[in-house]
Design a protein that fits this description.
Chain lengths: 352, 181
Amino acid sequence: MERNLMKGNEALAEAAIRAGCKCFFGYPITPQTEIAAYLAKYMPKNGGVFLQAESEIAAINMVLGAASAGVRAMTSSSSPGISLKSEGVSYIAGSDLPCVIINVQRGGPGLGGIQPSQSDYWQATKALGHGDYQLLVYAPCSVQEMVDKVTLAFDMADEFRMPAMILADGLLGQMMEPVTFPERKTELPPKPWATNGHGFKREHNIVNSLYLVPEELENSILDRYKRYEVIKANHTEAESYLCDDADIVVTAYGAAARVAKSAVNRARAMGIKVGLFRPITLWPFPVKEINEACKNAKALLDVEMSMGQMIEDVKLAINCSKPVHFFGRTGGVIPSPDEVLGEIKKLSDSNQ
Amino acid sequence: MDHEILIAGFGGQGILFAGKLLVNLGLYEGKEVSWLPSYGPEMRGGTCNCSVCISDDPIGSPLVVNPNVLIVMNTPSLDKFIGKVQPNGLVIVDSSMVDSEIERTDVRVCKVPATALTDTDPDLKGGANIILAGKFLAECGFKSEEMIRKVFEKIVPPHKKGLIENNMKAIKIGMNYDTNA
């Protein structure tokens, strides 16, 4: 297959078209604007709709509408814009609708900055909006994975009738790497629940997130959580790199994992037994996989482009059975492999 | 050998385009490659830089912090990055734009008055970036003009097709520029 050189944002947009996405609603924000720009150009040529909404809030509610009609729909933004979308995401989850949301993270809080960051981990995995619900959260670490995970996100969202998020960052969105694309999807799973036209051939469907009787609301939530259990049991994903004999396991996702991998390779060349564990699904967190990866480790080092958010899931997943150290840069600063290597060496020395 | 290349200058000098040329050549050579631009306000006239990695192995961090090749097109960028270059690294300087002296003795320096060279021929207007890229290609022994042409055909936008020949001219000037003369 031909290897194309493409920016992460543009590759992701192309992958969405190939995955059968027919509606994109968005509002420009650095560093994700190339997604919207690409789709503005190519979505109409592929029989879909591109619409620049008047705001992020409008965009996410347009996604709700399109998803209700059974159409594959997507929106994308960067951190501050995702915060604006949170109400709509909660309504989408409460209505059991599938959709894909892209967050190309930048530094926060507030307007923050425009450089790459990973400080929306908590927002994505714990609380993007009110109520009892989860999003499927995928954390690609290369342009190829941006493509692969968007394709998967659409399929999983449809299968489990829930929103899925790609949690990327400015570095992955802006960089170019070789990438290959899957064939275009021509057949999508049927959506018998969709509120689309049917010519009076069936009972009408209702999409709704309002339940005034507490027991009915509770039942709708319990039903959703049963699906979450199926996902947790069957659909976690992670990469373990040189972990088998590792005394130290570095945990990192997305762009930080690439920096960490460079550091791990350099540390290995110096004879330090260190590996990398990289969650690819952030929700559900790959609990089995991390316990397997660090079974021989004496200590873990969590590396993030934030003040430390995933570290809480790392500690929970291993039940605090080993010390978990932390190194992070935040505000849009990308850690260097040397900095991470320094932390690995420090830990290695103290383990001797 | 792995190339960790940093190209730096002002927005508008074609920093990102020079990076695209090199990263595509790496791709055509069958290497693992990455290209990472500075983005945002920097693209619009401020200082601008671009990281290009070309390697036999998968690329870890695409952000080049310690380049083994630095191509610089203005003084602020030279001052900012010269201390970061790996020992024995290669530094290619547009000497018509940079007035700082390089005090390091553990790096190889090629001074090419690229911007001044473009003044000699209207075809070369705006081609200083490509002259410097040509010098880099010559320094690392890359000779295939045919492959370079193929890359230009790919990365020059269709409405600017006329510029392919100009770019080829600039590349050859860079490749043949003798810094020892």
